[in-house]
């Protein structure tokens, strides 16, 4: 795969990520470099959508990517795809960071939270990303406004459902349900199977 | 919290929107609830798709820092009872295929509207069937395990990416930001067979950001070119190329 030119540093869906992770789990650093190329863009993008701050995002992205190396032997393909595993890890780390005490202070500006839209509009030259983004944007439009707001605030902003409920002044139980039925609708629209 | 209430937390759990204590309670519940566990897997995979959609290009230095750091980090022991799966679980491939197929089906649906407005229904149906087949082939190329990609800047700030699958012997060209061709003209794509141009079809003049399945097999072509041709296309190029790209090395 070395010959392929990837202008954005993210490869086409070439080598199977699962197989690469199996090699990484045996300590194969070259395989890790390929995994890095496949996942670093999504990891950084996701972390940055939650944390916003570029320097902090790079720091957390680096932690996540090193953790992929460290915990690769524990990856179990039976529990989901490799990309899913990596992005779940990335989201966890970003959310942990954003909920830490010092970050909490910066989140007082609730209006700012509501004001911001997810970073869908950021330019990427990457084909898969562009197709993926189009697809997600299209499916997001099939949600009700409350579903979309709830899912966006929880996932892209890292809020707990209690925080979402307070922010939107909507009862807890409603938010809980909207997060679930919103995701179910997205799952069906995106054709996700697991 | 009752079991029914716990079950509705699948969405919040998949989005990491629970507090620590709620998360622990829910995970205990998950151990006994296979239906919930399945739903969590699906909703987590859905959440990951939301993550993929905001991918961005990391700075070069990050790669160097990470690759340097891992040489000093010891790996964990495998999880107990782990079953190693080699031979490519195929999940990733299927995932892309679904995403692409759905995405392209949506694009075809939009195209379908225009076609219906301009032509009689029978023609439209034939075109739609053909578009459908092309879209399927296009998705197959993009999701082929041996798909290789190369990108380059084209004139006027446009950007081109070509995806080639040797196993499918097909290629897909994806343009971004190409200007519309002059009125009465079209962009025609050509395979470059060692200097000889072989037509690979016309680009839709109304779409500036579009994925095009090149007509015909790649065979020995080493690259592709794009020329501006009169509407309907030409048998051979009649103008100098506005873009020339090499295919990725096999």
Briefly say what this structure is.
The complex is a heterodimer of chains A (194) and B (250). With 194 residues, chain A is mainly alpha-helical. Chain A has helices at 17-25, 29-51, 54-71, 82-99, 101-106, 110-115, 127-140, 145-155, 161-168, 172-190.
Overview of this protein structure:
The complex is a heterodimer of chains A (194) and B (250). Chain A is mostly helical and 194 residues long. Chain A is 68% helix and 0% strand. Chain A has helices at residues 17-25, 29-51, 54-71, 82-99, 101-106, 110-115, 127-140, 145-155, 161-168, 172-190. In chain A, helix 2 (29-51) runs antiparallel to helix 3 (54-71). The longest helix of chain A is centred in the first third of the chain and has 23 residues, at 29-51. The two termini of chain A are 28 Å apart. Residues 1-14 of chain A have low confidence and may be disordered. Chain B is an alpha+beta fold and 250 residues long. Chain B has a domain at 3-56 and 140-246. Chain B has helices spanning 3-7, 10-14, 20-32, 34-52, 60-70, 91-118, 121-143; strands at residues 148-153, 159-165, 170-176, 185-193, 196-202, 211-213, 223-230, 243-246. In chain B, the strands form 2 sheets. Chain B has a 4-stranded antiparallel beta sheet, covered by helices on one side. A 4-stranded antiparallel beta sheet of chain B has the order 5-4-7-8, with no helix packed on it. The longest helix of chain B has 28 residues, at 91-118. Residues 81-125 of chain B have low confidence and may be disordered. The chains are: A mainly alpha (194), B alpha+beta (250).
The largest beta-sheet of chain B arranges its strands as 1-2-3-6
Strand residue content of chain B: 15-25%
Largest interface pair: A-B, 108 and 89 residues
Oligomer: heterodimer
- The rounded distance between the terminal residues' Cα atoms of chain A is 28 Å
What value does the average pLDDT of chain A take? Answer: 83
Structural class of chain B: alpha+beta
Question: What is the typical, i.e. mean, pLDDT of chain B?
Answer: 75
Put simply, the count of helices of chain A is 10
Poorly predicted runs of chain B: 81-125
Q: How much is the radius of gyration of chain A in Å? A: 18 Å
Structural class computed from helices and strand pairing of chain A:
mainly alpha
């Amino acid at each position: 795969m070395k010959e392929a030119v990837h202008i954005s540093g993210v490869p086409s869906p070439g080598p199977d990520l699962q197989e690469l992770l199996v090699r990484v789990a045996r300590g194969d650093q070259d395989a890790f470099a390929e995994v890095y190329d496949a996942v670093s863009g999504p990891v950084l993008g996701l972390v940055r959508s939650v944390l916003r701050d570029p320097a902090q995002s790079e720091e957390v992205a680096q932690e996540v990517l090193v953790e992929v190396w460290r915990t690769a032997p524990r990856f179990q393909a039976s529990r989901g795809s490799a990309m899913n595993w990596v992005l779940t890890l990335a989201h966890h780390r970003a959310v942990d960071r954003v909920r830490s005490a010092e970050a909490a202070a910066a989140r007082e500006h609730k209006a700012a939270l509501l004001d911001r839209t997810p970073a869908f509009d950021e330019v990427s030259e990457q084909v898969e990303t562009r197709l993926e983004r189009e697809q997600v944007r299209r499916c997001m439009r099939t949600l009700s406004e409350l579903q979309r707001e709830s899912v966006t605030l929880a996932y892209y902003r890292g809020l707990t459902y209690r925080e979402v409920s307070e922010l939107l002044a909507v009862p807890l139980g409603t938010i809980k349900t909207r997060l679930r039925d919103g995701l179910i609708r997205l799952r069906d629209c995106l054709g996700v199977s697991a | 919290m009752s079991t029914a209430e716990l079950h509705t937390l699948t969405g919040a759990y998949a989005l990491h929107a629970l507090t620590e204590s709620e998360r622990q309670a829910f995970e205990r519940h998950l151990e006994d609830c296979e239906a919930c566990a399945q739903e969590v897997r699906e909703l987590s995979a859905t959440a990951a798709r939301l993550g993929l959609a905001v991918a961005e290009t990391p700075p070069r230095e990050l790669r160097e820092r990470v690759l340097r750091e891992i040489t000093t980090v010891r790996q964990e022991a495998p999880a107990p009872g782990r079953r190693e799966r080699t031979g490519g679980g195929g999940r990733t491939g299927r995932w892309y295929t679904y995403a692409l197929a759905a995405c392209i089906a949506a694009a075809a649906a939009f195209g379908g509207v225009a076609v219906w407005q301009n032509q009689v229904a029978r023609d439209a149906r034939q075109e739609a069937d053909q578009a459908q087949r092309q879209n399927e082939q296009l998705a197959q190329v993009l999701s082929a395990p041996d798909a290789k990609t190369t990108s380059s800047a084209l004139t006027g700030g446009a950007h081109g990416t070509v995806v080639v699958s040797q196993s499918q012997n097909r290629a897909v060209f994806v343009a971004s930001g190409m200007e519309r061709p002059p009125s009465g003209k079209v962009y025609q794509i050509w395979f470059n067979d060692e200097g000889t141009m072989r037509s690979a079809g016309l680009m839709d003049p109304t779409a500036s950001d579009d994925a095009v399945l090149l007509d015909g097999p790649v065979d020995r072509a080493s690259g592709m070119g794009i020329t501006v041709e009169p509407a309907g296309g030409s048998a051979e190029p009649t103008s100098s190329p506005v873009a020339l790209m090499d295919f990725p090395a096999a």
